[in-house]
Design brief:
The protein has 232 residues and is α/β, with parallel strands linked by helices. The chain has a single domain, classed as Rossmann fold (3-Layer(aba) Sandwich), CATH 3.40.50. It is built from 9 helices and 6 strands, in the order ααβαβααβαβααββα. Strand 1, helix 3 and strand 2 form a beta-alpha-beta unit.
């Protein structure tokens, strides 16, 4: 699988600017969604980002009636941050799951990490939502694999990475939805979903995708649908 064409990559910054403008226009109207049940939702940031990148998403979840949490691990530097076996991230999720399993929402690399933990500690995870997360293909299906190697200290051709990716790709034992966009200029859109999970397409690029009104509304709808299914 190849990364997106250069023509899409060149649209990323204009699309990000448009996302911010749409957010300012639509923010108030996004509150008109079904109310949550108060369970904890942890949001995992993308490569090199911290909890600050997800403030808007967490605020939206809070006002819908969920208890939104950041991951509290600083910048996402891959295994350097979460531990080679994800032990630091798992410890954070264990602490958050004192009242019951937690929904994990992961942006880009954060989504890959969310799926990894969901496979390894399924009793801690109520459901998973990935946002523009290339979990279904080689890292070379992105324009950021070299940055990934530089930031994380890992090599995408390492057999350890291949084994981890195979684990992440496997179907999850809990509800999983992949949010993706065909206009993504950094990661191949087909790398962000599989037939083994639900999928929601949004009209967004990659940069700032977690701020896009369609993503915020989509996350609220996905969570509401899951609550409705659980109540049946």
């Amino acid at each position: 699988m190849k990364p997106p064409p250069l023509s899409l990559l060149l649209t990323e910054w204009p699309r990000a600017a448009g996302t911010v403008a749409r957010l300012a226009r639509d923010w108030r109207g996004l509150a008109d969604q079904p109310r949550g049940d108060g369970h904890r939702v942890m949001v995992l940031p993308g490569l090199f980002n911290s909890d600050r990148s997800n403030v808007v998403l967490r605020r939206h979840l809070d006002r819908l009636g969920y208890r939104a949490l950041g991951w509290g691990l600083g910048r996402n530097l891959g295994a350097r941050t979460i531990g080679a076996d994800a032990r630091r991230l798992i410890a954070r999720i264990e602490a958050a799951a004192v009242d019951g399993p937690v929904t994990l929402i992961g942006v880009s690399l954060g989504g890959i990490m969310a799926r990894l933990v969901a496979h390894r500690r399924p009793e801690l995870v109520r459901g998973v939502i990935t946002i523009s997360s290339p979990f279904a293909a080689s890292p070379r299906a992105t324009h950021v694999w070299r940055a990934f190697e530089w930031v994380t200290g890992e090599r995408v051709d390492d057999p350890v990475i291949a084994a981890r990716l195979a684990e992440v790709m496997a179907p999850l034992p809990m509800p999983a939805t992949a949010i993706w966009g065909r206009h993504d200029g950094l990661v191949a859109s087909t790398a962000c979903r599989t037939d083994a999970c639900d999928a929601l397409e949004v009209p967004s690029g990659h940069l700032g995708v977690q701020l896009h009104p369609a993503v915020l509304r989509g996350v609220g709808e996905i969570l509401a649908q899951r609550l409705s299914s659980e109540a049946r």
